[in-house]
Design a protein that fits this description.
Protein name: Thioredoxin reductase
Strand order of the largest sheet: 3-2-1-7-16
InterPro entries: Auxin_biosynth/cation_transpt, FAD/NAD-bd_sf
Pfam family, one: Pyr_redox_3
Number of strands: 20
Keywords: Oxidoreductase
Strand content: 15-25%
Organism: Paenibacillus aceris
Number of helices: 12
Radius of gyration: 23 Å
Shape: globular
Helix content: 10-25%
Structural class: alpha/beta
Length: 462
């Protein structure tokens, strides 16, 4: 067997695509249930997406960052868990949790790096054919170390995330030749402003685009850089109508570090160190020598912003669905999320940071035994938490091994954001209708913490 060949097993495995937090958790649950699996990672290390922002400190403590099955597996090998209340950086997550988990004998033999899935299908059938489809195995076409091979699987869990597919800065969501030509001056993600990327931003005029936690982290570090070098200019453009909408629940947030981000960014804005333009919709980018000109709509007029040196784009990400062309997958037409989740996470409807706990039932696709989980299940919607993904794969794995009682059971408690801004009728304010009972040990909603039984409806408050 050459090093490029993936191992054969007497029973077809469950294929997990992506060895990030949720993919590794899926492997832990399958291993715990003695179920064959293969874990395919396109990068050269586990959680390679997190490695790109390893300098950033999470807002969730270890308590919410470790999957239960993974914790049990690790503990059985003498692993000592970090303090539940400590808040790790991305690097600490990788070194103290993801790598030890990936190196366990229950997982390591079935984990393959530099293995990029480029296509998925049913064996011998295109997407069009229906007859006997559910009985046929999946085939994954994998590029590994420059060679193409096929992996057969009885089920597929797509945990590839969205981080490597950022949205463009243009508000229309379209990639343009001009933006692509400026790739050396646009950073998509969270740069290490005070570390390895410092020379890129020190003393420069930097434009930050976006209103989520990634943008806040970037701005806070740029604020520290400006304290060191006053010539550094910071411009923040966001599409929200009011900057205060970004501040979140602050002291009301049950995740103190997340609330603190809102408090700190408010102080930075009020200090005058950051020029804020809202609502600002970028329509065009142009080069002017070594500088960038940004043209956008501001207060119903065109505004020309000149002499920008660097742009940091924190406008979110989108799922890569290209390799799923030959499997029967349905996504929400606006969010590209799993269809059943869309009403719960649509930012056009609400801005709550917590979502009703959900599992295998909400993640089902027309293609039997094919699941999209983790941040990719949210499509373009924000506010995904790792612990939500852990609950998703616990439920999915339970269903795949026939434990439907466990698959239907909810085992998740989410921390409240302290924010529940509803654009349409809110369950917090209106009478509940179309009610159904959901059994839960404890469910944290955006409006209140409730215990079983829980009255549920499709909104952030259920």
């Amino acid at each position: 067997m050459s090093e490029n060949n993936l191992p054969t097993q007497t029973k077809l495995p469950v294929a997990i695509i992506g060895a990030g937090p949720v993919g590794l958790a899926a492997a832990a649950h399958l291993a715990t249930r003695k179920e064959a699996f293969v874990l395919l990672e396109a990068g050269n290390e586990v959680s390679s997406n997190i490695a790109s922002w390893s300098h950033v400190r999470l807002f969730s403590p270890w308590e919410f960052n470790i999957d239960k099955a993974a914790r049990q597996l690790l503990s059985s090998h003498g692993w000592k868990a970090p303090n539940n209340s400590d808040i790790p950086t991305g690097l600490e997550m990788i070194e103290n949790y993801f790598k030890p988990l990936a190196n366990l004998p229950e997982i390591k033999p079935y984990l393959h790096f530099n293995a990029k899935v480029v296509a998925a299908s049913r064996k011998g059938l295109s997407k069009v054919k229906t007859q006997s489809r559910d009985e046929l195995p999946f085939v994954l076409h994998v590029e590994k170390n420059g060679e193409r091979m096929v992996v057969e699987a009885r089920a597929v869990i797509d945990a590839t995330g969205t981080w490597t597919n950022p949205n463009p800065v243009l508000s229309e969501g379209v990639w343009t030749t001009e933006e692509n030509s400026l790739s050396n001056h646009i950073f998509y993600g969270i740069p290490d402003v005070l570390g390895k990327h410092k020379e890129r931003y020190v003393g420069k005029k930097v434009l930050v685009v976006g209103s989520g936690h990634s943008a806040i982290n970037t701005l806070l570090e740029l604020g520290e850089l400006k304290d060191q070098v006053q010539e550094t200019e910071i411009v923040w453009v966001l599409r929200k109508s009011m900057v205060k909408d970004v501040y979140g629940g602050q002291e009301q947030d049950q995740l103190a570090a997340r609330g603190e981000l809102g408090t700190r960014i408010q102080k930075l804005v009020e200090s005058g160190k950051v020029k804020v333009l809202t609502s600002f919709y970028i329509q065009e980018l142009k080069t002017n020598g070594e500088k960038i000109q940004v043209i956008g709509s501001y207060e119903n007029e065109l505004l020309y912003m000149d002499d920008i040196d660097e742009i940091v784009s924190n406008t979110g990400s989108r799922p890569d669905l290209s390799f799923l062309r030959e499997v029967r997958v349905i996504t929400d037409p606006s969010l590209e999320s799993t269809v059943e989740l869309a009403p719960l996470i649509d930012p056009n409807v609400h801005s709550c940071g917590t979502v009703r706990p959900h599992g295998e039932k909400e993640l089902r696709q027309p293609e039997k035994d094919f699941y999209i989980v983790g941040s990719k299940s949210y499509g373009r919607a924000p506010t995904f938490l790792m612990t939500t993904g852990y609950e998703q794969v616990r439920s999915v794995v339970a269903a795949l091994v026939g434990d439907y009682e466990a698959a239907e059971r909810v085992e998740l408690e989410l921390p409240e954001t302290g924010v529940c801004s509803i654009q349409t009728n809110s369950c917090c304010d209106s009478e509940q209708s179309n009610q159904s009972l959901v059994k839960s040990e404890a469910v944290s909603s955006c409006c209140s913490t409730v215990t079983k039984p829980v009255v549920s409806k499709s909104s952030c408050c259920s």
